[in-house]
C-alpha cells in the first residue's frame, strides 16, 4: 500500500461504503458526544419517526452550555439564566433517560465541558472517529482521533445509524519546527498559526500539526492547539499519538485495561503519517518566532504579538472590526485597559491552564475595577485544582471561582460582559457580541490573561512568570 | 425536505467578509429546543437597535432589500460554530440562497440539508454581484447556473449528492437507513478485529 497520512489511515478504517462520483462515503462514527444545545431537535426527529438509537453505548452526554456556573441555591435549585435554559437542560435529562444514553448531569462527579470530559474519561482514543454537534470537537484530534463538529440534522443521522455521509476532505500539514520560547505556550502558537494561514486558511482541509514543537507539547497543550483548528475554518485538526498520549490515557476509566491496553497501544503506534505521504498543502511555522499573541479584531485570524503594532485596515470589513474593538492601528495591544478577564472554555480550562494562571496570580491581586472569572472545565479539574489549593490563590487575588461549564466563552448561561467592556479571554472566538452584545473580546493565553488581570491592561506574561512570595 | 429546483428573486447584499454564525444568530438564543420561529432572531444584534427598532444601517432593513430571497454575502460566510440554528433562522427569515466565493464547511453542509442553497461562485462574478444589489437572478439547481437579467449565466459547482437531494427532496436519513446491511457488516468486522 502506498504511503498514507494519519488522516487517510483513520478515514480508510471507518469507511462503511466508499464514495463514488454520485454519492459521499458512509463513514462510521466510534464516539458521539452530546450536549443540551444541539441535540433536542435530533431526539425529537427520532421520536417523530419512531426510530431508536443504533448504538447508545457509543454515546456520551453532558450538560455544559446553558448551565449556570454559580453554585446551587440553598434549596438545591440552580440559578439558571432563564426558564428556557432550565427547560433545555431538563429536556436532555429526559431524552437521555428515555433513549438510554449515559449522561454526566448535575449529579455526576465527572460532569464538565464535553471536550474536557471525553478525554478525561478515556472515551477519546487514538484512531477513533468522534463527532459532536459542536465545532470545537476538533479538540479530540490531539489524541490522533478524527474529530469534527456536525449540525443537528447529522446528530440525528448518527443517532439512528451511527454513520455520516461525508466527502473526503483535503489534508494540510502544519510543520512547527524548533522550540517555543520561554513564556510562550500552545495558545500563542495556535493564534499565531491562525494569524498566519487566515480565518479561512483551513477550509475544506483536515490539518495535521507536526514537528518538534508539536511533539514537545503536553496533552493539555495539544488539545488547545487542535481545539482552534475550526477557527482557521478546518474540518478537523490532528496530532499523531505518541508516548505522551499513551502515558496520559493509561488507566483512565474507558480505555482498555491490562493485556488489552498493550494490544491497543501496539495498534496506536501505527497511527502516524508514513514517510513520503503526500498532503494537499503544507505550511511551515517557526516556533522560535512565536511571541505572546493576542487578537485585535473580530475574528481569530486577526492575531498579532501583543507588542506588535495593530495593522491598518485594508478594507471596510477590517475598519469595522477595528472600530468595534477600538483598536488603534500602529499601536500595540499591550497596555489596552481591561474590564473583564475570563479563564475557561474547552480551549483553556484544564488543570495545567489553571496552574499557569495561579503561577502568575500567586501573591498578587487583580487590578481595581477588573472582574476576573475562573471557570474549570470539569468537576475533575475543579477537584484537582482545589486539592492543590489553586482556588485559594484565585480567591485571594480577587477572582471568582466557579462551577464547571462553557460560561463566558459562549455567554448563553448568563455569564457575560456588558456592552463596550473589553474582555481578555482564554476562549476561542472573538466574534462581535460573542461574550455579550457589544462586548469586545481579546483572545489570549491563560498566562497573558492572568497578567492582564493584575496589570489592569493587556500585559506581557513573561514579566509576571517570576513568582512572588505569597 | 421539499424539492428545490429553481429560485427566482432579487438579491440583497451583506458585503462583510467572515459573517460568523454568532452574527447570524447570537448564542443567547440557542436555548430553544425546536427549529421553528427563529427568523425574528436572525442577525438580531445587527438588525435591531437597543430599543428594539429596526437599525437603518443594517443593509437588509432597507426597503429595496425586503422580500429578497437571495443573499449575496462577503467571503467565508457562516464561519464559526456548527449551530444549525443559523440556516434555520435564515430560512425562517426568508432567505433561500446564499451566494459567496467561499462558504464555511459546516454551515454549507447544514444549509444544503435544509434546502437553503449555499452556492459557491467564482470571485469575479462574486465581486460583480456584491457591487450590484437588487439584481434579478434565477437559480437553476438542475443545470447548475444562475441566469442574469441580460441573459448571461454564472455556472456553479454543486456536490452531486447534495444536488440530487435538493432536486428530489431526498431524505438523507432515509438514504442512510437503507444501508443497514452494510453498517451491520462493518460492525461485525470491527468486532472480529
From TrEMBL, chain A:
Enzyme Commission (EC) number: 4.2.1.33
Binding site for [4Fe-4S] cluster: 346, 406, 409
Domain Aconitase/3-isopropylmalate dehydratase large subunit alpha/beta/alpha: 8-456
Record field: catalytic activity: (2R,3S)-3-isopropylmalate = (2S)-2-isopropylmalate
Nucleotide-binding is among the record's keywords: no
One BP annotation, GO: L-leucine biosynthetic process
Cofactor(s) this protein cannot do without: [4Fe-4S] cluster
Source taxon at top rank: Bacteria
GO molecular function (one): 3-isopropylmalate dehydratase activity
Family: Belongs to the aconitase/IPM isomerase family. LeuC type 1 subfamily.
Protein name: 3-isopropylmalate dehydratase large subunit
Organism listed in the record: Rhodanobacter lindaniclasticus
Taxonomic lineage: Bacteria, Pseudomonadati, Pseudomonadota, Gammaproteobacteria, Lysobacterales
Recorded name of the encoding gene: leuC
TrEMBL record, chain B:
EC number: 4.2.1.33
Record keywords: Amino-acid biosynthesis, Branched-chain amino acid biosynthesis, Leucine biosynthesis, Lyase
A GO cellular-component term linked to this record: 3-isopropylmalate dehydratase complex
A Pfam family matched in the record: Aconitase_C
SUPFAM superfamilies associated with the record: LeuD/IlvD-like (SSF52016)
Coiled coil: none
Any Gene Ontology biological process: L-leucine biosynthetic process
Its biological purpose: Catalyzes the isomerization between 2-isopropylmalate and 3-isopropylmalate, via the formation of 2-isopropylmaleate.
Stated family: Belongs to the LeuD family. LeuD type 1 subfamily.
Protein's name in the database: 3-isopropylmalate dehydratase small subunit
Amino acid at each position: 500500500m502506498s504511503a498514507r497520512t494519519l488522516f487517510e489511515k483513520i478515514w480508510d478504517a471507518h469507511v462503511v461504503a466508499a464514495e463514488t462520483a454520485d454519492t459521499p462515503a458512509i463513514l462510521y462514527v466510534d464516539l458521539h458526544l452530546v450536549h443540551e444545545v444541539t441535540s433536542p431537535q435530533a431526539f425529537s426527529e427520532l421520536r417523530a419517526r419512531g426510530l431508536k438509537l443504533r448504538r447508545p453505548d457509543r454515546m456520551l452526554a453532558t450538560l455544559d452550555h446553558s448551565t449556570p456556573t454559580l453554585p446551587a441555591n440553598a434549596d438545591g435549585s440552580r440559578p439558571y439564566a432563564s426558564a428556557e435554559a432550565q427547560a433545555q437542560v431538563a429536556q436532555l435529562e429526559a431524552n437521555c433517560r428515555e433513549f438510554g444514553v449515559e449522561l454526566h448531569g448535575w449529579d455526576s462527579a465527572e460532569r464538565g465541558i464535553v471536550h474536557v470530559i471525553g478525554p478525561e474519561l478515556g472515551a477519546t482514543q487514538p484512531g477513533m472517529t468522534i463527532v459532536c454537534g459542536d465545532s470545537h470537537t476538533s479538540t479530540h484530534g490531539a489524541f490522533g482521533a478524527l474529530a469534527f463538529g456536525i449540525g443537528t440534522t447529522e446528530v440525528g443521522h448518527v443517532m439512528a445509524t451511527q454513520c455520516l455521509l461525508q466527502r473526503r476532505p483535503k489534508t494540510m500539514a502544519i510543520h512547527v519546527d524548533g522550540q517555543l520560547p520561554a513564556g510562550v505556550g500552545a495558545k500563542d502558537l495556535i493564534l499565531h498559526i491562525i494569524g498566519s494561514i487566515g480565518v479561512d486558511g483551513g477550509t475544506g482541509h483536515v490539518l495535521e500539526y507536526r514537528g518538534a514543537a508539536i511533539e514537545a507539547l503536553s496533552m493539555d497543550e495539544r488539545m488547545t492547539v487542535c481545539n482552534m483548528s475550526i477557527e482557521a475554518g478546518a474540518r478537523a485538526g490532528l496530532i499523531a499519538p505518541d508516548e505522551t498520549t499513551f502515558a496520559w490515557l493509561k488507566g483512565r476509566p474507558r480505555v482498555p485495561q491490562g493485556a488489552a491496553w498493550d494490544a491497543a497501544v501496539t495498534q496506536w503506534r501505527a497511527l502516524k503519517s508514513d514517510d513520503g505521504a503526500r498532503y494537499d498543502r503544507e505550511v511551515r511555522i517557526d516556533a522560535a518566532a512565536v511571541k505572546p499573541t493576542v487578537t485585535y479584531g473580530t475574528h481569530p485570524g486577526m492575531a498579532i504579538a501583543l507588542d506588535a503594532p495593530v495593522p491598518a485596515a485594508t478594507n471596510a470589513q477590517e475598519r469595522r472590526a477595528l472600530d468595534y474593538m477600538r483598536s488603534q492601528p500602529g499601536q500595540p495591544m499591550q497596555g489596552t485597559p481591561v474590564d473583564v478577564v475570563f479563564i475557561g472554555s474547552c480551549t483553556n480550562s484544564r488543570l495545567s491552564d489553571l496552574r499557569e494562571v495561579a503561577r502568575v496570580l500567586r501573591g498578587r491581586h487583580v487590578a481595581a475595577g477588573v472582574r476576573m472569572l475562573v471557570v474549570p472545565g470539569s468537576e475533575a479539574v475543579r477537584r484537582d485544582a482545589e486539592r492543590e489549593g489553586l482556588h485559594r490563590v484565585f480567591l485571594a487575588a480577587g477572582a471568582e471561582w466557579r462551577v464547571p461549564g462553557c460560561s463566558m466563552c459562549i455567554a448563553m448561561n448568563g455569564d457575560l460582559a456588558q456592552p463596550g467592556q473589553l474582555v481578555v479571554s482564554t476562549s476561542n472566538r472573538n466574534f462581535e457580541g460573542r461574550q455579550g452584545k457589544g462586548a469586545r473580546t481579546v483572545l489570549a493565553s491563560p498566562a497573558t490573561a492572568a497578567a492582564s488581570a493584575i496589570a489592569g491592561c493587556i500585559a506581557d506574561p513573561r514579566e509576571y512568570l517570576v513568582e512572588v512570595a505569597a | 425536505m421539499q424539492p428545490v429546483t429553481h429560485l427566482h428573486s432579487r438579491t440583497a447584499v451583506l458585503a462583510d467578509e467572515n459573517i460568523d454564525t454568532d452574527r447570524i444568530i447570537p448564542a443567547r438564543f440557542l436555548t430553544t429546543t425546536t427549529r421553528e420561529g427563529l427568523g425574528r432572531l436572525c442577525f438580531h444584534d445587527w438588525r435591531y437597535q437597543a430599543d428594539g427598532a429596526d437599525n437603518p444601517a443594517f443593509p437588509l432593513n432597507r426597503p429595496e432589500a425586503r422580500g429578497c430571497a437571495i443573499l449575496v454575502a462577503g467571503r467565508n460566510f457562516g464561519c464559526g460554530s456548527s449551530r444549525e440554528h443559523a440556516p434555520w433562522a435564515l430560512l425562517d427569515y426568508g432567505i433561500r440562497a446564499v451566494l459567496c466565493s467561499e462558504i464555511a464547511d459546516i454551515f454549507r453542509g447544514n444549509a444544503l440539508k435544509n434546502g437553503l442553497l449555499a452556492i459557491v461562485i467564482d470571485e469575479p462574478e462574486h465581486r460583480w454581484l456584491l457591487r450590484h444589489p437588487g439584481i434579478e437572478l434565477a437559480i437553476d439547481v438542475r443545470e447548475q447556473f444562475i441566469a442574469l437579467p441580460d441573459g448571461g449565466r454564472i455556472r456553479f459547482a454543486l456536490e452531486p449528492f447534495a444536488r440530487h437531494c435538493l432536486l428530489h427532496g431526498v431524505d438523507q436519513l432515509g438514504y442512510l437507513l437503507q444501508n443497514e446491511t452494510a453498517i451491520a457488516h462493518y460492525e461485525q468486522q470491527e468486532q472480529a478485529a
